[in-house]
Design brief:
The protein is built from 9 helices and 5 strands, in the order αααααααβββββαα. By secondary structure, the chain is of the alpha+beta class. The protein has one domain. A 5-stranded mixed β-barrel has the order 1-2-3-5-4. The longest helix has 44 residues. It is elongated and about 100 Å long.
Length: 276
């Protein structure tokens, strides 16, 4: 999914309250670069350990947000990036994109106010942009796309990978096809959010009813539909009969009547007294 679609969802159409835009602006900027972390040969374990310090278990998007906030607290230091195996050039590019987004928001007269650490609200906003790229848990560490049923797997670099708990529903930024279908940049979401933000794709199924109750409800709905169709058929038939009567009466009125006769018929023979 292109990052600029993500931008348009949050900025141009203004579907997100202004107090969330500051955090979302950072997340969008982080998604505009190919990679943030690097793993030098021979120091893979050190790189992975440094990366784990930034991970937010619920979301890779929030992990990116956390990285930027930590870099900002350390004065945008290049040394700090090198110590934590982070691409300094990528982070500088992120900062440039963030400034460009600020200029766009200024043109739209959108106030930049932070929402603090209310990250659940941010996750819901992320869900509003990615609800069509959602997956549900099928097995241990295995997901399937909610709409297509395609198998999906968490990427080993994801914050949700190997954390000991897999959320029931997630949304992802993109799908990478290698030996498996790997989801990159994943965020855990609530199933009710998907039904609320993507009603054209999802709905909430009531699991409290028994099988017999659901069967009876289905039969009642079918019976009601058949009755409605019968009423509609009867109404159409009645209208058709009424229209036929109106047409017959109209044709009868248009027939020409000969004077002296009550109904059109063959004229009688002319009397002989008229000399014919």
């Amino acid at each position: 999914m292109p990052v600029y679609h993500f931008v348009s969802q949050f900025i141009h159409f203004s579907i997100v309250p202004s107090h969330l835009l500051e955090r979302l602006r950072i997340i969008v900027s982080m998604l505009s670069v190919p990679a943030i972390f690097y793993r030098p040969k021979g120091r893979e374990e050190d790189s992975d350990n440094a990366r784990e310090k930034f991970q937010v278990p619920e979301s890779d998007h929030l992990t990116f947000l956390n990285v930027y906030q930590q870099w900002k607290r350390n004065g945008y230091s290049a040394t700090w990036c090198n110590e934590h195996f982070i691409h300094i050039k990528a982070m500088r590019k992120v900062r440039e994109v963030r400034q460009q987004l600020k200029e766009i928001m200024d043109q739209q007269k959108m106030e930049l106010v932070s929402c603090g650490n209310e990250w659940d609200i941010i996750r819901k906003c992320i869900c509003s942009a990615y609800f069509h790229q959602a997956a549900r848990l099928k097995g241990i560490g295995e997901y399937v796309n909610v709409r297509t049923g395609m198998p999906c797997h968490l990427h080993p670099t994801s914050s949700l990978y190997g954390m000991g708990y897999n959320p029931d529903y997630i949304v992802y930024h993109e799908l990478v096809m290698t030996v498996k279908e790997y989801m990159q940049c994943v965020t855990a979401v609530d199933g009710h959010w998907l039904a609320e933000l993507g009603p054209m794709f999802y709905s909430i199924k009531d699991s409290t009813k028994s099988r017999q109750e659901r069967k009876k409800i289905a039969e009642d709905e079918k019976s009601a539909m058949e009755d409605e169709m019968k009423r509609a058929t009867d109404l159409i038939r009645a209208r058709k009969e009424e229209q036929e009567k109106k047409e017959a009466a109209y044709i009868k009125r248009r027939e020409i009547a000969t004077p002296g006769r009550s109904e059109p018929s063959t004229p009688r023979r002319t009397p002989a007294k008229f000399g014919i």
